[in-house]
Amino acid sequence: MNQKELKELIEFLIEKDIAEFELERGDVKVRIKRGVEHVAPVLPVTHVAVHTAPGSTPEIAAAPVVAASTSVENAGVVPAAEQGLHTVRSPIVGTFYECPSPGSPPFVKPGDTVEIGQVLCIVEAMKLMNEIEADVAGEIVKKLVANGQPIEYGQELFVIRPRS
Fold first, then answer.
1. What is the pTM of this model?
2. What are the phi and psi torsion angles at 61 (to 5°)?
């Protein structure tokens, strides 16, 4: 793997918002892991580690790479705990879908009132569609992810203002 291939791989992972990736080709092993700071809007840093078999020389040098794109849409969000809001988090890793099928309306949108057990979205994991339900009744304040976006375990999906 040369530097050009590695650069293209990193750009692809950033574009698709993939947080962790591992590739093994022959005696070269590449692992890329990105992390996002949740406290303040900070650029995520990508670390590249190259491992080779004993006696061989790596073709590329390992170096930290700063991601060019960030999720700025969440930068202005005040933490839910400060406003008495409830955050719905993903129970699994997968792909977020806001509607049951392409072209159909989303399950919920900001401003909608939801009940406990109402479907908010679908998270696809390993070709299985998992319905994510509201665990509190209230009003949807904000949707924090885009349709078709890869999501991680524990990632914030929706902010709900609980009904009093």
1. 0.51
2. -95, 145
10's enclosing H/E stretch is helix 3-15
pLDDT of 52: 52
**pLDDT-derived band at 42, boundaries 50, 70, 90:** very low
- Which residue did the predictor score with more confidence, 60 or 90? 90
**Going along the chain, which residue ranges are E strands?**
20-25, 28-35, 45-52, 65-66, 86-89, 94-97, 113-114, 119-125, 128-133, 138-143, 150-151, 156-162
Exposed/middle/buried for 44, CB within 10 Å: 0-12, 13-18, 19+? Answer: middle
Question: Which pLDDT tens digit goes with each residue over 94-104?
Answer: 999 999 988 89
Q: What are 144-148's contacts with CB under 8 Å, separation 24+?
A: 144/73, 144/74, 144/77, 145/96, 146/96, 147/96, 147/97, 147/98, 147/99, 147/106, 148/95, 148/96, 148/97
DSSP lists the bridge partners of residue 158 as 88, 143
